[in-house]
Inverse folding.
């Protein structure tokens, strides 16, 4: 398949190369990470052509299961990085999606359309039907377009669901996991030994990530904002290459452990927490770095606790998801933000979401009020899921926010 990148996506790629070769010239581990980023989608396309099962996957809980079945997931977040205005135009003009539709829905649907035209080898999509109504419409559109689409049902634990109600929810979810496996492999039987191995791998990687985040408190500028964002994103999907991603984390622990503590660097850094998806307007990260901010806390990828290893692995996946901040109710995520605030002595929160997402904007307002009352300032940012230059106004606001915190 010819993967011709739009000029915006090409510019984004150049930005990654610049970050790899110049901003992170001192860090072989982060250089290797960016190589994984750059090759992710192209290599997955090639693997698909050579007969490996490859799917577009937007459901984080399923990643260990997908790997355990010998398949490769290509995360939706990376669809954003390779898509641009052309994809948005397809969604608005060809699919007639209203302009105000969330940019994530428009960017992914438009990009899949364009890739299909170009002969992509990845024609299966695993999404979530719990996400939102615009995406549910997009799934129908993609089915009509000839994609094999599967969506998982609601993975939502309402506050107060405990005891037998909780156990019932676990059983329901376990059943769903088998349904998904049937779509992926043709059988409801899950290879439990293989899934257990993936769980052990995931726990190892989350422990490594915790070490890295602890070491970064002493060396806040060794990994810059774009680097840490991709490191954290990779914890969900490993860029299609679990062993190589593991090597990146191992190498980074070693790098950080070997550094002398520089007290001036520590004092200079303004500790920040990032909540929400990853912004594709990379200028945002540069502005954070230039203003002296350091993203030392994240709440998007659950990495602060392990999957249980001593129970049935399918149940382990269900319990991990339902007990993490990804279980739907914003109160779970709020608890994790609070833990991170204490852990890094955060001076501010960056609340990031995508244009057109009404769910996200309500949640961000709730967080803003809550943390404002606790004396933690925040900035509410809305960006696009597809690549593009951030507006000057957005960058000015970030700069002003961080300067205020210093
Ligand atoms: S960002 Fe919001 S509107 Fe967009 S797909 Fe996600 S939940 Fe739906």
């Amino acid at each position: 398949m010819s993967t011709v990148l739009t000029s915006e996506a090409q510019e984004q790629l150049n930005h990654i190369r610049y970050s790899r070769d110049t901003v992170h010239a001192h860090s072989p581990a982060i250089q290797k990470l960016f190589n994984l980023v750059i090759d992710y989608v192209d290599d997955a396309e090639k693997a698909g052509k050579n007969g490996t099962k490859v799917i577009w996957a937007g459901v984080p809980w399923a990643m260990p299961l997908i790997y355990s079945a010998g398949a490769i997931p290509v995360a939706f977040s990376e669809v954003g990085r390779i898509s641009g205005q052309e994809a948005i135009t397809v969604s608005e003009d060809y699919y007639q999606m209203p302009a105000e539709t969330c940019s994530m829905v428009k960017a992914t649907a438009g990009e899949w359309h364009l890739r299909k035209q170009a002969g992509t080898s990845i024609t299966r999509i695993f999404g979530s039907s719990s996400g939102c109504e615009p995406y549910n419409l997009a799934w129908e559109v993609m089915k009509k377009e000839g994609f094999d689409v599967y969506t998982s049902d609601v993975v939502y634990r309402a506050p107060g669901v405990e005891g037998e109600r909780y156990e019932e929810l676990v059983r329901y979810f376990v059943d769903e996991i088998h349904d998904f496996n049937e779509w992926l492999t043709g059988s409801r039987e899950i290879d439990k030994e293989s899934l257990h191995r993936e769980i052990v791998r995931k726990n190892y990687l989350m422990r490594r990530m915790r070490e890295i985040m602890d070491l970064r408190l002493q060396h806040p500028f060794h990994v810059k904002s774009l680097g840490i964002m991709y490191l954290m994103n990779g914890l969900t999907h490993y860029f299609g290459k679990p062993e190589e991603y593991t090597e990146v984390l191992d190498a980074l622990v070693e790098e950080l452990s070997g550094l002398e503590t520089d007290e001036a660097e520590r004092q200079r850094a303004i500790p920040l927490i990032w909540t929400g998806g990853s912004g594709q307007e990379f200028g945002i990260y540069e502005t954070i770095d230039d203003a002296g901010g350091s993203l030392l806390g994240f709440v998007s990828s659950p990495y602060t606790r392990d999957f249980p290893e001593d129970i049935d692995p399918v149940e382990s996946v269900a319990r991990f998801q339902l007990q993490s901040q990804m279980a739907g109710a914003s109160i779970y995520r709020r608890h994790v933000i609070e833990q991170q605030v204490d852990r890094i002595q955060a001076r501010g929160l960056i609340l990031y979401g995508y244009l057109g997402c009404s769910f996200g904007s309500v949640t961000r307002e709730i967080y803003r009020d809550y943390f404002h009352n606790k004396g933690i300032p925040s900035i509410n940012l809305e960006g696009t899921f597809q690549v593009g230059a951030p507006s000057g106004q957005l960058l000015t606001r970030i700069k002003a926010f961080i300067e205020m915190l210093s």
The chain is about 60% helix and 10% strand.
